[in-house]
Amino acid sequence: MVSKTLVLLGALVAAVSAVPRCKPATTGSAGAPVPTLPATGGATELPPPAASLSLKRIAAGHGIQNYTCASSDQAKAAATGALAVLYDITSLYPGTPNTGLSAEAFNALPTTILWTQPLPLNLQDPSAASAGTPSDPNNALAESSYGAVIGDPFPNPAADLVLGGLAPIAYLGHHYFDAAGAPTFDLRAAGDGLFGRVAKADGVAAPPASDGGVLGTGAVDWLRLVDDGTGAGEGVTAVYRVITAGGQAEPCSQSGAGSGSVPYTAMYWFYG
Questions:
Q1: Under DSSP, is residue 145 helix (H, G, I), strand (E, B) or coil?
Q2: Alpha helix ranges (H) inside the chain
Q3: H-helix or E-strand containing 55?
Q4: In 3D, which of 243, 228, 229, 213 has the Cα closest to residue 110?
Q5: Any bridge partners for residue 86, and if so which?
Q6: Lowest-pLDDT range, 23-32, 81-90, 253-262?
Q7: Distance between CA 162 and CA 92 in Å, rounded?
Q8: What is the Rg, in whole angstroms, of the alpha carbon atoms belonging to the chain?
């Protein structure tokens, strides 16, 4: 019997195959691939990681982007942070012996996760957890319905990610904005002490063919984030957010005044 997730994965792979993503990896020692950071294929790309840095982890993040509108007349919603659960997909990188996916399937992971997995957060409205399907999205709810429970956004205990046909993908940690508004990545669940407190350094628009998400509002930008220099980080010097799906806010004229959240997925590449 073929898994429904694998059937949908095949359809989503076909849908995203035309979008520039990760390039074929070069080969390192003992046949292990040397992962290549994905590129948008546009006129402007994110600056590459410094030669002195090494790749620590590749994660899939699934959660929400948070926004606020002071009034319905505001031109654009103001970003107020994000919440996401992170899963370790390092071993799924194409070319990895025994566990690597095809380049097409790997690049499709954010879209696959967005549409086949419920939001892994404690939501104020549990009915918002399901994305629906690309042909019938769960988009009738207001942006405010996708918000997480304040003070308790993450389920405890955390669960691994289960996609049909694959071994469970290990829970890696959480992404959130701290009390000072700094983007934070806590990867210490993996046992190697990685923790990032970063600031935005660069951003480029997601490719035009990117998955527009549950609300059809578009994919959030690709970003390069760097250590903020406060000394709070441990082992994480740079973070790249790439291959994004969903997450853009509705116009304030549509969402109205107040706070809202938009489901998204992305890949995060961690360097240190």
A1: helix
A2: 4-16, 103-107, 109-116, 252-255
A3: strand 55-69
A4: 243
A5: 61, 173
A6: 23-32
A7: 14
A8: 18
Per-chain mean pLDDT for the chain: 92
Structure tokens at 179: 């009390």
Judged against a pLDDT cut of 70, whether residue 3 lies above it is answered with: no
Task: Report the predicted TM-score, pTM, of the whole model to 2 decimal places.
Answer: 0.92
Within 13 Å and on the Cβ side, how many CA atoms surround 115?
26
Question: Hey, what amino acid is at 233?
Answer: G
Q: State how far the Cα of 234 lies from the Cα of 194, in Å rounded to an integer.
A: 5
pLDDT higher than 70, residue 14: no
pLDDT of residue 32: 81
- 159: how many CB neighbours lie within 10 A of its CB? 11
Compute the Cα dihedral for 51, 45, 89, 127 and give only its sign: positive
Q: What are phi and psi of 188, to 5 degrees?
A: -70, -10
173: left (phi over 0), alpha (psi -120 to 50) or beta: left
> Which whole number is the average pLDDT over 241-270?
98
Tokens linked to 89: 């997909």
Look at residue 29 and tell me whether its pLDDT is greater than 60: no
Distance from C-alpha of 26 to C-alpha of 36, rounded to nearest angstrom: 8
Q: At a CB cut-off of 8 Å and minimum separation 6, what does 243 contact?
A: 21, 22, 38, 107, 109, 110, 210, 222, 266, 267
Quick one: what percent of the chain has pLDDT higher than 70?
89
pLDDT band for position 50 (cuts 50, 70, 90): very high
Closest alpha carbon to 272 in 82, 97, 94, 52: 52
Contact between residue 117 and residue 161 where contact means Cβ atoms under 8 Å apart = yes
Mean of the pLDDT values across residues 157-186?
Answer: 97
